[in-house]
Amino acid sequence: MELVKNRQIKEKATIQAEKVLYLCIEQGLSFKISQGCVLTLAPPLIISPEELNLAMDKLEYALTQVFRHNI
Questions:
Q1: pLDDT tens digits for range 18-51
Q2: Which domains does the chain have, with CATH numbers?
Q3: Fewest C-beta atoms under 10 Å: which of 10, 51, 59, 69?
């Protein structure tokens, strides 16, 4: 998932990506950031639907905090 500040000009949201990463790490969700703004998640091959939903909830929470509440 690539994070951008402005969809029209696709300005990279590098600072926001780092904030999302740290909020997720605080919740126990880890992933990589490449090119400064691309979030790369690599869940295990064996994952339950509940675990996947929990991971997506954590990511959604972090994205909301950073982009809507300017955390």
A1: 999 999 999 999 999 999 999 999 988 999 999 9
A2: 4-67 (3.90.1150.10)
A3: 69
